[in-house]
Structures are given as structure tokens and as C-alpha cells.
Amino acid sequence: ISEKIKSKNLLIFNDFGNEIKKTKEMSLILKKFEIFNSLIILDKLSKSKIEKSIRNIPNIKVTDINHFSAFDIVKFKKIVFTESSVKELEKRYS
């Protein structure tokens, strides 16, 4: 993860407060922040709000903090966390 930070390939987003239902809407967000070939790690609430809109977008994997691995971190160019997922990781590893 520290290598992703050094290369500016780690992003932290606010939690997804509103449900994003359309793939086109999610695609615009991803393009705006240049999120391609990325692993998106979410808290469970945010995951349920964007899951349907992102499932047809290639080279994007969405998971929660309980289901990602070191392989995922190496495989994808960018890593995107939500604030809540970072807080959950801090609790787990502190």
C-alpha cells in the first residue's frame, strides 16, 4: 500500500451517501478521477449503494475490507478506499 501512496495511486473517497444505479453515472465518476484498472475497497453500506452500477465496467473490482488480498493490491494499478473502510482497517490493525 505504501508503494501505491508514493506513486499517487491510492485515493480515499467520502462514503457513497446516495445510491448510484446507472452504469453511465458511475462511469462518469470513474473517468473524472481517472480510475481505471482499479480495486475499490468499500464499507458494506457504500458497497450496496454502487454494486449494481459498477458490475459491468471492465477492470474494476469492488470489494469490502473483509474480502481483498495482497494479490489484489498488486494486481490493480489504483486502489480506492472510502473513509469508513479506512477507519475499519485502522480499528482492525491498530
Summarize the SSE layout with pairings.
Elements: H1 2-6, E1 10-13, H2 23-32, E2 38-42, H3 44-54, E3 60-64, H4 70-75, E4 78-82, H5 83-93
Parallel strand pairs: 1-4, 2-3, 2-4
Structural write-up:
With 94 residues, the protein is of the alpha/beta class. The protein has one domain (2-93): Ribosomal Protein L4, Chain: A (3-Layer(aba) Sandwich), CATH 3.40.1370. Helix content is 46%, strand content 20%. It is built from 5 helices and 4 strands; from the N terminus they run H-E-H-E-H-E-H-E-H. It has helices at residues 2-6, 23-32, 44-54, 70-75, 83-93; strands spanning 10-13, 38-42, 60-64, 78-82. Strands 1-4-2-3 form a 4-stranded parallel β-sheet. The longest helix has 11 residues, at 44-54. The protein is globular and about 35 Å long. The mean pLDDT is 90.
Outline:
The protein has a single domain (2-93), classed as Ribosomal Protein L4, Chain: A, CATH 3.40.1370.
